[in-house]
Design a protein that fits this description.
The complex is a heterodimer of chains A (345) and B (312). Chain A has 345 residues and is α/β, with parallel strands linked by helices. Chain A has a domain of 84 residues. In chain A, 33% of the residues lie in helices and 22% in strands. In chain A, strand 4 and strand 5 form a beta hairpin. The chains are: A alpha/beta (345), B mainly alpha (312). Chains A and B meet through strand 6, helix 4, helix 5, helix 7 and helix 8 of A and helix 1, helix 8 and helix 9 of B.
């Protein structure tokens, strides 16, 4: 295949008016025996330098698949990206050849994973795994990489980094392991950091520490941060804006304050209502009814309609577009006004 | 911070139990899988014992004259009149059916047996391991082709297969025996390696390494291989013993080594018929063979444990 011009990698630093990272109408499907599973159906979001975007949704909503598509670590096949663009400073990553993409992976866009124990190689010391980033991508010597590993462990606030650099992953607690994972991810000063449920496997106090660490690192380096989570409570203090995903689509885009004050999509509202609150002690906790949609057999119309308390006839037949309901806000609900009003009242 | 306490307590307990704190490595050194494994190995009695035994056997194979002044290839050292004698000051292990010194023959037999065992093991581990690694990692058509090929090999009865291969060469010597054994056994190493690679490949740390920019060779050799190699090491060491035994079997059938070559297998085969009258000529090479196999299996166990940080 010969293309007239191969897109070139954008330089580091400020790049015109383009957002740092823009996902545009992305579709991802997986080939299975039962047919194509449409995991992502036209997702769009944008991230600017120094900004934190929280991508919210339950299991199977397509939030992690979108992230893996950005990283280029989907197994293709069975995965396929029939449509869409992922622009990194204006360059469509999906059109880049593999060797150019691997230049971006880890160096310009990095990712951390949910379970840091299984995401760290059990047979290597944490120091050698952090140092590997420098050895592989920068050609740093082993000894210098070792020093840099200690510096990074200090930077992610691991106490006694010097003594612990030669320890193995299983000798660390969950929170410390996640810090090591973060140290590896920020080693080469990436411009975008994607955190896929970084705190799900941790207990609540440690969750707060890790979120605080991520927020600090983002402030220090002006990188864009994408936080993928299913826990609204975790992102409230850290995120600037939120994209709520359901059934492979974005159903609400909003600034974090707006959505907490009054969600404009029934699913976002359901998520907010199902956070346990101290002042509702003794009452039954709200739960969204029903099950996440079957991606092989999506409901007609609005995919949330079988679970939606605001459902009308139109929802079964007609899929709602992403209505623009404010300068920084969208909702994919025919009855967003009612939802907004209901939230206020 | 609350999450820093737990691991230190755990480490303290571990060091305390094994009493290793005093001899712990210097904190400023750069640790790696291999240096840590070596550091650990040097402290394992299992490793020290098996390594010492293997060194003695290798010296015996390389310089057998250091161990005995009798040259078993010199027909004059065999006295038919002294056949099947018991142990004595002159003949430590007694004499065999032809009146040759069993001790000298056992010492000189080490070379062929160990060369066949070790070389065949190395060849099968390298060929089978490497192909298994690549096939498991790449998958697809390559994997299918190799897997079907190994299935063909599994369908061949090994003794018949070896007979066939050796018949093609017409001569039985160390090289043809090794080749026949290696050709028939690499599929086993391949299957074991492929299976472990398939398990390891789907671990999160491989995905994480990919997401942080590791190239395919790096994923294969640094992230997957060290985690998948344990079972191949263990099986290879067990195979080593069976290669020495298989060489004996082929020699017994008359297609392997032939007199005047000396090997433990040949000696066992020759002594078999008169075993009840004179057990020595069979027992001593058999004991050496067992010790060799034991030493390599212990070495394999020690190396496998040292490569797993959780067992250190």
């Amino acid at each position: 295949m010969k293309k007239t011009s191969t897109p070139v990698l954008p330089a580091r630093g400020v790049a015109g008016n383009e957002p740092l990272l823009a996902v545009d109408n992305l579709h991802v499907e997986f080939a299975t025996r039962q047919g194509a599973v449409k995991a992502v159906n036209g997702v769009s979001y944008a991230l600017n330098p120094g900004e934190t975007l929280a991508v919210l949704g339950e299991s199977g909503s397509g939030k992690s698949v979108t992230a893996q598509a950005i990283m280029g670590i989907l197994d293709m096949p069975p995965a396929r990206i029939p449509r869409g663009e992922i622009r990194f400073k204006g360059t469509d990553l999906l059109r880049l050849p593999e060797d150019a993409r691997s230049q971006i992976r880890g160096q310009r866009i990095a990712m951390i994973f949910q379970d840091a124990l299984s995401a760290l190689n059990p047979v290597f010391t944490v120091g050698s795994q952090i140092g590997e980033m420098f050895q592989v991508h920068r050609g740093t010597s082993r000894r210098d990489a070792h020093k840099k590993a200690i510096e990074l462990m200090d930077r992610v606030r691991i106490p006694g980094a010097r003594q612990r650099v030669n320890d193995y992953p299983h000798q660390f607690s969950g929170g410390m392991r996640q810090r090591i994972m973060i140290a590896m991810a920020i080693a080469l000063d990436p411009e975008v950091l994607i955190a896929d449920e970084p705190t799900t496997a941790l207990d609540v106090t440690v969750q707060a520490q890790i979120m605080e660490l991520l927020a600090e690192l983002r402030r220090e380096s002006d990188m864009g941060l994408i936080l993928i989570t299913h826990d609204l409570g975790v992102v409230a203090d850290v995120a600037d804006k939120i994209a709520v995903m359901y059934g492979g689509r974005i159903v609400e885009n909003a600034l974090v304050h707006d959505i907490y004050r009054a969600p404009a999509h029934p699913y976002a509202k359901g998520l907010l209502d199902s956070i346990p609150r101290v002042d509702q002690k003794g009452q039954e906790l709200y739960a969204i009814k029903g099950m996440p949609p079957n991606l092989l057999d999506m409901p007609s119309g609005c995919s949330f309609h079988p679970r939606c308390p605001y459902r009308q006839d139109i929802c079964v037949t007609e899929a709602p577009p992403l209505y623009e309901i404010g300068p920084t806000r969208n909702s994919a609900c025919h009855y967003w006004r009612e939802v907004l009003d209901g939230s206020h009242g | 911070m609350s999450d820093t306490l737990a691991p230190d307590v755990r480490r303290g307990a571990k060091h305390g139990k094994r009493g290793r704190r005093a001899s712990a490595p210097k904190p400023d050194r750069v640790a790696s899988l291999w240096t840590d494994a070596w550091y650990d190995l040097r402290r394992r009695p299992l490793f020290i014992g098996s390594a010492a035994l293997i060194i003695v056997l290798i010296v015996m194979a390389a310089f057998p004259w250091l161990f005995t002044s009798v040259d078993p290839f010199d027909a004059a050292t065999c006295q038919l009149g002294e056949a099947r004698q018991g142990m004595s000051g002159v003949h430590w292990f007694g004499t065999d059916n032809l009146g040759c010194d069993v001790y000298a023959r056992t010492v000189y037999g080490a070379r062929n047996s160990i060369v066949v065992g070790v070389t065949t093991t190395v060849i099968t581990a390298l060929v089978g391991g490497l192909l298994g690694l690549v096939a498991g990692f790449k998958g697809g058509a390559l994997d299918t082709v190799f897997s079907r090929v190994t299935e063909i090999f599994f369908a061949i009865p090994s003794i018949l297969g070896a007979l066939l291969i050796l018949a093609v060469f017409r001569t039985g010597n160390v090289w043809t025996v090794m080749l026949a054994l290696a050709v028939l056994t690499w599929p086993m190493t391949f299957r074991i390696m492929r299976a472990s690679v398939l398990t390891v490949k789907n671990q999160d740390y491989v995905t994480a390494a990919r997401a942080l920019g590791a190239s395919a060779p790096r994923l294969m050799f640094r992230h997957i291989l060290p985690n998948a190699i344990a079972s191949v090491i263990v099986v290879s060491m067990i195979n080593l013993g069976s290669f020495i035994a298989a060489e004996a079997g082929l020699s017994f059938l008359g297609v392997g080594l032939r007199s005047p070559d000396i090997s433990w297998g040949l000696m066992i085969a020759d002594a078999r018929e008169r075993f009840l009258e004179a057990p020595g000529p069979l027992l001593f090479p058999a004991i050496f063979l067992s010790l060799t196999v034991l030493a390599f299996i212990m070495l394999g166990d020690a190396v496998r444990d040292a490569l797993d940080p959780k067992l250190r």
